[in-house]
Design a protein that fits this description.
three-stranded mixed beta sheet; Adenine-n6-DNA-methyltransferase TaqI, Chain A, domain 2; Rossmann fold; six-stranded mixed beta sheet; about 425 residues; alpha/beta; about 20% helix
């Protein structure tokens, strides 16, 4: 701004005062962040003091903080969705009702550029003992777009690429937009925020209302840009593929037009039993079923099996519903598959990835799941530790009477040497104890 206005306002002091007083505005999300921001921008937490780089009439200057209230409808805020019991804590404590999204037109003026690092999530009261959270950053992004600036740039979790509670509509809007100039992705959030682990990494974007075209997508690892490509965010329909190098591999797999595995994977609670589940026996009991649950194998009365009872006499392959191994590559992507014999079931700790007539078919499928090829295609869509059936929609549904290996699969789909090296850099060997 100092450079851009040099000819219009030649005097440097006048130019600086014009910029600080008439061009730079900020909205603090808490009183504390307001003080920190004023100190950083004005060199003083009191914008009216002699220590401020420019003097305002009031202490806040153009960086405001105003306590805002939630708008509760049937126990939940209609703006951010958080429940009354989580946030209604009295006037003396922060209530996380952010002015930017709860009041909309804060300054009643037109902005050219909106930049932010919005709050990422709020507790929603689910998951037991308040451990469940809902994303909130997307509301800030959408509000910024509604204000119709020329540019928006925000840093957010990358989870919206493929995952996130209640983010489907937001993801669709982002992927359909052709106004993104840049998207810079950090798969390991520690590269940006060393003291905080953000599952799925973080990313920032530059959105330009006057731009129409492909987006420059970059991936940064340990401070180095390792990959860049020019492409549209929505080229793979309802998800964004973060790995540029994966695009030609996916194209080769899709060129076969084979059915995929998504429809074969069970939903949450494949047999209707939650996790944890307590009504089990530690030793085998006549008439009871073998039960695979988190960290152990026990025995359960068949009366607790509420769904998919026709699977009980079949061979099955299970995989842990949640698997994480740190943020940096290479990943294992999924836990080691379990071949479960007839008369066995599982809790929601696991997904059932296939049901088979005999042991050989189940073992072949478990071997297929263990290949780097299979796990790579799952990993392309898996941004967090959580596994859902849609993460398998790029994986071909192949004949389970065949023992598939990486060598056979790479040859089948024409995966070349450089692509194999890339897959190896993303997917590590399967550990026996995983």
């Amino acid at each position: 701004m100092m450079v851009g206005l040099e000819q219009a306002i030649p005097n440097e002091e006048e130019r600086r005062e014009h910029i600080f007083k008439k061009m730079l505005y900020g909205i603090a999300i808490t009183e504390l962040t307001g003080l920190v921001s004023r100190r950083s921008l004005y060199y003083s937490k009191d914008a009216s003091s002699d220590y401020s780089i420019v003097q305002f009439k009031d202490k806040e200057g153009n960086i405001t903080y105003k306590r805002t209230e939630h708008d509760y409808v049937q126990g939940k805020c209609r703006i951010c969705g958080s429940p009354y019991e989580n946030l209604e804590r009295g006037d003396s404590m922060e209530n996380y009702a952010y002015q930017f999204i709860h009041e909309g037109e804060v300054f009643n003026m037109k902005f050219d550029v909106i930049i932010g690092n919005p709050p990422y999530q709020l507790q929603d009261g689910g998951g037991g003992r308040g451990s469940s959270a809902i994303p909130i950053y997307q509301i800030f992004v959408e509000q910024a777009f509604r204000l119709k600036p020329r540019y928006v740039s925000m840093i957010t979790p990358s989870r919206w690429f493929t995952d996130g509670k209640g983010l489907q509509e937001f993801r669709t809007k982002m992927l359909e937009s052709t106004n993104f100039r840049n998207l810079v992705d950090y798969p390991d959030s520690g590269d940006i925020f060393p003291s905080v682990e953000i599952k799925g990494g973080v990313s920032y974007f530059l959105w330009d209302s006057k731009y129409e075209g492909a987006c420059q997508v970059s991936r940064v690892e340990k401070g180095v840009t390792v990959s860049t490509s020019q492409r549209f965010l929505g080229e793979h329909e309802d998800v964004f593929v973060r790995l540029n190098e994966a695009i030609p591999i996916i194209a080769k797999v899709k060129s076969k037009s084979e059915p995929t595995l998504e429809g074969n994977i069970s939903s949450r609670k494949p047999f209707g039993m939650p996790s944890p589940f307590h009504d089990f026996e530690k030793v085998e009991k006549k008439g009871y079923l073998k039960l695979y649950q988190q960290g152990s194998v026990t025995w359960v009365d068949p009366k607790y099996v509420l769904t998919n009872t026709d699977w009980i006499p079949k061979w099955k392959v299970l995989v842990s519903k949640a698997y994480g191994a740190g943020e940096g590559y290479p990943h294992q992507i999924i836990g080691k598959p379990i071949v479960a014999e007839p008369n066995s079931v599982c809790t929601e700790t696991y997904l059932v990835c296939g049901v088979f007539d005999n042991k050989k078919q189940a073992e072949n499928f478990a071997s297929y799941m263990s290949t780097k090829f299979f796990r790579f295609l799952v990993g392309v869509l898996k941004a967090t530790q959580n596994m859902t059936k849609d993460k398998f929609k790029l994986v071909p549904n192949l004949d389970v009477n065949t023992l598939w290996t990486d060598d056979i699969l790479f040859k089948r789909y024409g995966i070349d040497t450089s692509e194999i090296e890339f897959i190896n850099s993303i997917v590590r060997d399967m550990r026996e104890d995983s």
